Backbone:
């Protein structure tokens, strides 16, 4: 019994509505995953198995789709998702030092992508399409252009203050 | 109908759906990794390419034949492309061939040899992924996977499960169980069919040869071997003997030479199964209770039913499989005859089956921490041991099996064929029901190779509707038809492997599975003919077993020793994860929304329950959660109120639950 996973009833209720909206057929898989990703910032394993059952797919197939598309994540993400552009333009303008500076600032070690307090996730993306502003980062929906390691400190200070840290 | 020119030969075609089949008909062995005639066409490996005049290079496996096509299978260009493909595959592949389980039966190795790949221009892969040894039956080595997808399709299309699938993309793409879990943690039923189609060593049968030798070398152990029916018609294949020829006597000689103490026949235990299972069937049939009765000798099917059809578990025969009946009889009774403790006796089964390894490890089949069957070897492993011992198998003289459990009737032997269990049961049921002697023992209707067969057996006026399925995807369909009322049967035989046990994944690997299976099937029917007796009830050794120990079929003692119980199983083992855990409240209610309960409508129950609690103003007092499988699936939908587990919950019970909450809150 101890291994029984559980989720808030509201989540199941919400998910049922989403599934009902898109129809319980395999073709509903991607739209349903998108909604779950939007709500939880990641795709919890239990919900994926649940979705598989509801759409009559095997969990392995659902996992395959969820790992195929870059828009989905299977790991819980932080409240603030920091994406560092590492497209060509940003790369030559020093995106990697920025990336390292951010990781150091939020104290990410051992290849982890999300801080233990669940506040920040840091990842790289290829070309955000704002090369004129290189190097570029985004935090959730906010875009920051021509960032420097010093600017990073300021930006994160602000966010941490907002979180009462 | 039409004609094509293949490498200058005129070749007729008729029902072939692709050029590859026509090429093979012309006796040209075009290489493939991802083509199996029984599976859907995937067309990914590109080894099957041909040059078609006017069309250039095409994959023959998914190009339909057309009249007048001129096809070449061997040109400078094709040879170069194929060699390139092989080189690229090998670049990404573990190249430690000498240590690979599949060395000698690996398609990649074979084709690299055939095409003379002598060097690989690319470096080795730098990352080594861990082996998956979690399953009792199969070892998965992702470093050897060439992404042909054969395993993915066999598990989905033949077994109807879909344990494995492609995940990730680009260079990181791999074939894996859901959530990158291990095979032993997911809904794999251990049938091994994925390993039988895998062209490389990425999926192999878990070898337990070392343990077998250890037991044989250990003087304090009396090693007793049982040989399953299907094994005897497959071992010879590996030593150049005709496919389907029974080599039971030679296997016995070889085992004795290796140092085994006693060699017995699982067919004897199959006779015992027939007696118990027929009695059980006739009782259920006359009481119209738990009909249809499903056979229970295939452990892959049993696990499948436990995972997906808990509502049918009462319909499964409670009989243990022949392997487990044998182990139980030997350890309980025969050990006493030998004056030994059960721990001093070591039972090894030789099986055509990988799922039997799992079955032997089920805790129901342990007594005082000692298993009834200590070790299961597949036919493949036995062959390796014979080779390792340096025995010239083909020239061995046969030896008679030991008594008492070396004596079997033909009914026990045909267990290895799809339809065999049904036929054996009918041979017994006929005489019990009609009280007359059965003259013609052959029931032709049960025999065949189709995945689903059904017919009505007429026992002089008593009609029994029988269905025989092999492949669990077929079983799933049949169960759905029974559930929806579309189909009605009295007796259903289910085997997970195509063709039944003769097509088990523990049998020697071959590229031409279907034909071998048919020959092995014929071989077992020939054995039945050759034997003196064809009905389990005639087996004199059984009669004495009942006299000495079991009293009579279906007795209390027989139930203890030969029958078992089943339980529902969660599909996927998961760590508990919690999303938005609600706050503390005095009462804790969990409603199961795992697969089985979900399908029985637990979500609606959950919804109604919330509404009612809300209406009565108790929402703050209840920590209401959805649980993923409480492993009580047979009794689903399941609701757990604090420690109280309630099964089969319907809408009418909801007020009762609300009442319970009320009383708890008031306390
Ligand atoms: S052993 Fe059978 S059930 Fe398990 S993954 Fe392989 S084919 Fe699927
Ligand atoms: S594990 Fe074997 S059968 Fe499956 S995709 Fe890889 S190479 Fe093919
Ligand atoms: S067999 Fe045709 S592409 Fe693999």
Residues:
């Amino acid at each position: 019994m101890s291994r029984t996973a559980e989720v808030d009833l509201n989540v199941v209720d919400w998910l049922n509505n989403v599934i009902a909206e898109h129809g319980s057929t395999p073709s509903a898989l991607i739209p349903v995953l998108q909604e779950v990703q939007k709500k939880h910032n990641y795709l919890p394993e239990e919900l994926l198995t649940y979705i598989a059952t509801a759409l009559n797919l095997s969990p392995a197939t659902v996992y395959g789709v969820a790992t195929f598309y870059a828009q989905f994540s299977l790991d819980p993400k932080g409240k603030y998702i920091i994406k560092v552009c590492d497209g060509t333009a940003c790369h030559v303008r020093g995106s990697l030092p920025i990336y390292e500076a951010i990781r150091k600032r939020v104290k990410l070690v051992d290849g982890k992508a999300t801080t233990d307090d669940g506040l920040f996730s840091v990842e790289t993306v290829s070309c955000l399409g704002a090369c004129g502003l290189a190097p570029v980062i985004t935090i959730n929906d906010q875009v920051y252009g021509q960032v420097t390691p010093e600017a990073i400190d300021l930006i994160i200070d602000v966010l941490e203050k907002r979180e009462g840290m | 109908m039409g004609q094509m020119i293949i490498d200058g030969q005129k070749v007729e075609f008729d029902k072939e759906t692709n050029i590859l089949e026509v090429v093979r008909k012309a006796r040209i062995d075009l290489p493939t990794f991802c083509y199996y005639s029984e599976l859907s066409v995937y067309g990914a490996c590109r080894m099957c390419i041909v040059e078609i005049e006017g069309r250039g290079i095409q994959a023959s496996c998914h190009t339909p034949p057309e009249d007048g096509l001129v096809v070449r299978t061997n040109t400078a260009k094709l040879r170069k492309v194929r060699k390139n493909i092989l080189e690229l595959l090998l670049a990404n592949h573990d190249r430690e061939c000498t240590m690979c389980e599949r060395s000698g039966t690996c398609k990649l190795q074979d084709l690299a040899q055939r095409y003379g790949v002598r060097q690989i221009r690319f470096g080795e892969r730098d990352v080594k992924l861990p082996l998956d040894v979690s399953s009792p039956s199969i070892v998965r080595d992702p470093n050897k996977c060439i992404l042909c997808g054969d395993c993915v399709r066999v598990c989905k299309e033949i077994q109807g499960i879909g344990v494995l699938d492609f995940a990730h993309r680009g260079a990181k793409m791999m074939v894996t169980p859901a959530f990158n879990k291990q095979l032993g943690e997911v809904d794999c039923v251990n049938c091994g069919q994925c390993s039988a189609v895998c062209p490389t060593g990425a999926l192999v049968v878990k070898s337990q040869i070392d343990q077998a030798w250890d037991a044989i070398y250990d003087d304090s152990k009396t090693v007793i071997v049982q040989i399953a029916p299907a094994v005897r018609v497959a071992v010879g294949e590996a030593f150049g003997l005709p496919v389907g020829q029974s080599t039971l006597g030679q296997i016995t000689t070889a085992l004795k030479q290796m140092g085994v103490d006693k060699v017995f026949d699982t067919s004897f235990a199959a006779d015992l199964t027939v007696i118990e299972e027929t009695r059980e069937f006739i009782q259920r049939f006359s009481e119209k209770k738990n009909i249809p009765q499903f056979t229970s000798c295939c452990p892959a099917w049993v696990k499948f039913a436990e995972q997906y059809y808990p509502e049918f578990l009462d319909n499964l025969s409670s009989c243990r499989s022949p392997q487990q009946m044998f182990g139980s009889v030997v350890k309980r009774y025969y050990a006493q005859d030998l004056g030994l403790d059960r721990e001093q006796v070591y039972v090894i089964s030789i099986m055509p089956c990988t799922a039997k390894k799992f079955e032997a490890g089920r805790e129901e089949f342990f007594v005082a921490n000692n298993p009834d069957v200590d070790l299961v070897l597949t036919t493949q492993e036995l062959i390796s041991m014979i080779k390792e011992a340096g025995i010239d198998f083909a020239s061995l003289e046969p030896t008679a099996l030991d008594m008492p459990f070396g004596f079997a009737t033909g009914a026990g032997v045909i267990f290895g064929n799809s339809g065999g269990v049904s036929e054996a049961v009918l041979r017994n049921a006929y005489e019990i029901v009609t009280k007359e002697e059965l003259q013609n023992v052959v029931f032709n209707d049960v025999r065949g190779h189709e995945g689903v067969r059904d017919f009505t057996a007429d026992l002089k006026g008593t009609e029994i509707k029988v269905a025989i399925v092999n492949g669990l995807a077929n079983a799933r369909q049949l169960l759905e038809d029974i559930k929806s009322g579309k189909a009605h049967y009295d007796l259903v035989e289910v085997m997970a492997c195509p063709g039944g046990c003769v097509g088990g994944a523990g049998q020697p690997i071959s590229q031409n599975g279907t034909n071998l299976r048919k020959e092995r099937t014929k071989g077992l029917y020939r054995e039945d003919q050759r034997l003196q007796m064809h009905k389990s009830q005639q087996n004199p050794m059984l009669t004495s077993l009942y006299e000495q120990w079991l009293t009579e079929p279906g007795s209390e003692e027989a139930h203890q020793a030969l029958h078992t119980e089943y339980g529902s199983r969660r599909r996927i083992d998961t760590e508990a994860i919690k999303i938005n855990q609600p706050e503390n409240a005095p009462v804790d209610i969990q409603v199961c929304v795992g697969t089985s309960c979900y399908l029985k409508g637990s979500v609606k129950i959950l919804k109604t329950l919330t509404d009612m609690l809300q209406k009565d103003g108790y929402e703050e007092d209840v920590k209401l959660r959805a649980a993923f499988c409480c492993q009580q699936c047979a009794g689903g939908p399941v609701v757990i109120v604090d420690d109280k587990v309630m099964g089969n919950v319907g809408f009418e019970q909801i007020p009762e639950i609300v009442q319970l909450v009320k009383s708890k809150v008031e306390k």
